[in-house]
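User: Hi! Is it possible to get a structure for several chains at once, not just one? Here's what I have:
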Amino acid sequence: MEIVPLSDAVGAEIRGVDLRETLTTEMLDQIEAAFHDYAIVVLRDQDITLEQQKTFALHFGELGSRARPGKKPNELDEYGEHVMLVTNVRENGKAIGSLPDGEMTFHADTAYFEFPSKATMLYAMELPSWGGNTLFSNGYAAAEHLPEDMKRRLDGKKAMQVYEYGTTLKTKEKYDRENFPYYAHPIFRKHPATGRSALFVSELMTEEIVGMSKEESDEILAQLFEHQKQSEFVYEHEWKVGDLVMWDNRCTNHARTDFPRDERRMLRRLTIQDTTPVVEGAVPYTQAAAE
Ligand code: OGA
Ligand code: MN
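Assistant: Yes, the chains can be modeled jointly so their relative placement is included. Here is the combined structure:
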């Protein structure tokens, strides 16, 4: 097995693994270590069934459920409780999956729950001729490279994560909290495996910094969102059919570039449920400033 970094920002490709085969404990340990070191792992040229994808995912924890408050399991599609098809494919004019069209702004999956998804695993099955790239922003680097005075202002603060299902671009200032979930999480989130602090806010889902005036909160969040999308923190994944990408929602945010509405794009998605609570991380002051 070979681990090859994908960018200076985040992510590594894992070579020499065929997910149709049974992986040894040693291989799984190496994959998990790479996942912790690089936050995103990419395995290319995989030709796997849903069952094989599930078997791989289950090495990292329980599968996340797609059941949602107010939505009965039998209202989910035929793929069942754990599988989401991320696709624009339509039958009788209706999208057969989720997150169908175009650009999406940065977010961490299900950040609006008390226990957000630990990881998300997307497997590419059909792709358009251009676009639909997934961008990943390194939350550790984003946190560490904030100006020191900003770190001080955010010390101990929480941000409210809110989401209306299906939204891919935030077009209104406030989501409907009567009907959709929300949860306040620490802005500096401690990763339970690495111990490092990551910036846990995103343009799509973070509405306000708790306990700040609206004016100050809006101003700071706008700065954080700009900061987070800087290219030095971002790896852009150009998908190929057979790519399997697993990302860590605890220390990265992701976004998607636009793609043609009239060309098919289909990826099969599983999430890994988190079981450890979200905890506050130390402010990642630089050593020079701390001295
Ligand atoms: C997701 C997601 C991005 C993409 O599945 O959570 O954000 O590239 N997908 O489709
Ligand atoms: Mn997502």
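The chain has six helices and 19 strands. Residues 2-274 form a domain with the Double-stranded beta-helix fold (CATH 3.60.130.10).

User: Great, thank you!
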